[in-house]
Please model this.
Amino acid sequence: MTSAVVFRLVPLDTLLEHEEIDPAGVDALAERIRRDGTVADPIWVAAGSNVILNGHHRVAALRRLGARWAPAWVVDFHSEAVRLERWSEGPPIRKEEVVRRAHSRDLFAPKTTRHVLAVELPDRPTPLSDLFAEQAPTAVPLAVQPRSSVPPRRPAARAPGSDGS
Model:
């Protein structure tokens, strides 16, 4: 990954899941997004393949709301700046396996993979109204800082789907 990460509004119909979702949390998440009128955190998408790396539940909630676009940080998935871990014990998973499962629709169970970026992403809330627009705005390249002594962002442990992913 270069020192830039691109923020884009990505068409929902082009995104590929590699994990199942927990449907119980999607309705509540969709309602929260509708009520707040914003998506607080963009999803993470692999450049070139449109595989969702982080944000399966947000994508499902946006689809349920009838949105056309998802706010996304588009990253070079095969870069060393993107680490692939597991949320729970188990054998290591290769990045190629994530892409293969997304394309074959042989999905992992919810919350199997955990992607960690070696860059600090700025806050980027997106108004829900932008996600229903006929056309998306142009991509915005952003300079991001490599992590040095900053530990990887580790979300607090929560029930699947309760953290907006």
Notes: Residues 4-146 form a domain with the Conserved hypothetical protein from pyrococcus furiosus pfu- 392566-001, ParB domain fold (CATH 3.90.1530.10).
